[in-house]
Amino acid sequence: MSFPNMSSIRLSLREHLDSDANDYYNLLSDESAVRYYGRNTIDSLSEAKSEISALHTKYLMSESIKWAVILDAKSVYIGSVGIKDFTNQHHRGTLSCIFSPRYWHFGYASEALKLVIVYAFETLKLNRIQAYVDPINVRAMSLFKKLGFSCEAILHEYEFERGRFIDIAILGLTKNK
Asked: 54: domain range?
């Protein structure tokens, strides 16, 4: 099964490669990058390599697709976007994205997610995509709203992160809206 590569004016989205391990480690070991990503930082390059291998396996098993986001002008890894839980009877999936803080505020997340949204609706034939966002993450809330998502609910004290319970906003977008 061939991995679905995509591109825009400034970005290429492709499968994570073993050669991305250092960049992937740098991204996921950066506390400011993972602060709202719903996970802890990683501790080693070997953990990054294991995760990249797991991404490939999850793709082959149709559990998720996670693209490496490459800034074409510099041929540099700047982040990752993905969609998971898309093989279900309900025709929906959940988006995720994480970018290196040095590439925030340039519109790269929006550009990459637009490609993933089109892929989700046109290729995966989903009817709905959603994102789970910490509502205090104003940049992410704004990003998804600019992409057409609406905030459908706030799940109070839904996740336990960094020693405390946090709220999570569910943002949704359907194919026909």
From this structure: 6-126
Round to the nearest angstrom and report the end-to-end CA distance of the chain.
31
pTM, rounded to two decimals: 0.94
CATH of the domain at 21: 3.40.630.30
Q: How far is CA 68 from CA 9, 97, 105, in A?
A: 16, 10, 18
Token pair recorded at residue 39: 């996970």
Q: How many domains does the chain have?
A: 1
Residue 140 lies in a domain: no
Q: What is the mean pLDDT of each run of 10 residues along the chain (177 residues)?
A: 93 97 95 84 93 95 96 94 90 95 96 98 96 94 97 95 91 92
Residue 17 tokens, joined: 């490669």
Measure the CA–CA gap between 172 and 82, rounded to whole angstroms.
15
Runs of H (alpha helix) within 20-122 = 21-28, 31-34, 45-60, 108-118
Closest CA to 71 of 157, 155, 8, 154: 8
